[in-house]
Design a protein that fits this description.
16 strands, elongated, alpha/beta, single chain, eight-stranded mixed beta sheet, 398 residues, 9 helices
């Protein structure tokens, strides 16, 4: 661990960077201002840096003092299309928001790069720093893999790690993870319901798709409980419904949009079939037609058991056993770090980042316009990133 004065200086720098990124969030695959801030923060470090052409990614390679293995560390950089309502003095005001903590991930990964560059001579291999855009719905991880991030140092990484902060649920400063599934696989759901439309005064002369669409919204959650094994639960959510233009017009067309989240393939397959069956049956009962579509989106984010154990041990040894907590069950959020874990053994670790004086059980969760993340966790996150890489380069996992 660096000396206390160096840690203090590092913390100040990371807070400054994180708040600059937070105040000026960017969405999707094109993050020119964010990328430039990261490049400026990495300037002068002994890194081999490559920037993406079709997306604003950064791949930085640190060559260790001894040849050996390769480890990858990932941090995502993009924000959400959400108007911030936190009232912070560095709150975003451009209609986007870092409501999922990616600004902290980015700053922590910069911090890890600084710590590891200072320890370069002792590293038994190379480290890839994967600064990724487009995690929020644009599958930026897959695009960076296609662009060659996994071969950036030459050999394929032996392990890959990511940290994800949480503004609620977990105590401040506590790291947690688990073996196997950590986050859910996700499918995108769309239902197009077609009727004939008509006048609001004469619904009997029309075929109104809106009651059918509303019935689907009510029936689909019940389908999940009667299809999935209670020991292997899943979540189906309809988040958007679009129909109509005025209160006295019966729409001819309605659309539903949602997600299906799952942890095991048999459950996913059964629920996909149930989704299609329920939508078509309800449409038929209402005298309209339905076209339910399922689009595969994300795989399950599944930790390698050995790497999850290694991450837990690393946190406990670096920060103390009180700073680590085994996660009892997986979350139902999705993560495109699954693209990396599908190809490289590794682990994602969650980090409680709610303010110290907040009750995590009642704090605003990730993706809320009121979500607040505490800067105090930045240096701990950077240290854990750095130690995961340094220790994994030096030792095999049985």
């Amino acid at each position: 661990m660096p000396p206390a004065p160096e840690m203090h200086a590092l913390h100040q720098d990371l807070v400054r960077l994180r708040r600059e990124i937070h105040a000026d969030p960017e969405i999707g695959l094109r993050l020119p201002r964010t990328r430039q801030r990261v490049l400026d923060a990495l300037a002068g470090l002994p890194l081999e840096i490559t920037v993406g052409r079709e997306l604003d990614s950064i791949t930085a390679v640190l060559r260790g003092g001894r040849s050996g293995r390769v480890v990858l560390l990932r941090g995502d950089m993009d924000a959400l299309p959400l108007t911030e309502r936190t009232g912070l003095d560095y709150a975003a005001r451009n209609g986007a928001m870092h409501a999922c903590g990616h600004d902290l991930h980015t700053a922590m990964l910069v911090g890890a790069a600084r710590v590891l560059c200072a320890r370069r001579a002792e590293l038994a291999g190379d480290v890839i720093f994967m600064f990724q855009p487009g995690e929020e719905g644009a599958d930026g991880a897959a695009r960076m893999i296609d662009a060659g991030v996994l071969s950036a140092a030459g050999p394929k990484p032996v392990a890959a790690y990511a940290i994800h902060v949480m503004s609620a649920r977990f105590p401040h400063g506590v790291f947690t993870t688990r073996r196997g599934p950590l986050m859910a696989g996700a499918d995108l759901l769309t239902v197009t319901v077609e009727g004939t439309g008509g006048h609001g005064s004469a619904p009997h002369l029309a075929h109104d798709p809106l009651p059918a669409a509303a019935a689907m919204v009510g029936a689909l959650p019940g389908m999940v409980t009667r299809t999935a094994d209670p020991a292997d639960t899943a979540v189906l959510t309809i988040g958007a419904i679009h129909a109509g233009t005025a209160g006295n017009i019966l729409a001819a067309h309605a659309e539903l949009h949602g997600t299906l989240r799952w942890h095991h393939a048999p459950t996913r397959d059964a629920l996909r079939k149930g989704f299609e069956r329920v939508c078509r049956s309800i449409a038929d009962a209402h005298g309209v037609t339905a076209d339910p579509q399922v689009t595969e989106y994300l795989d399950v984010t599944a930790n390698d058991p050995g790497e999850a154990d290694f991450a837990a041990t690393t946190v406990s040894e670096v920060l103390g056993p009180q700073r680590y907590l085994d996660l009892a069950g997986p979350l139902y959020a999705g993560e495109d770090f699954c693209r990396v874990l599908d190809r490289v053994p590794g682990a994602m670790v969650l980090l409680g980042a709610c303010p110290r004086d907040a009750d995590p059980a009642h704090a605003f969760d990730n993706h809320s316009p009121y979500a607040v993340f505490d800067d105090a966790v930045l240096t701990d996150g950077a240290l854990v990133y750095a130690e995961l890489a340094a220790r994994r380069l030096a030792a095999d996992i049985a």
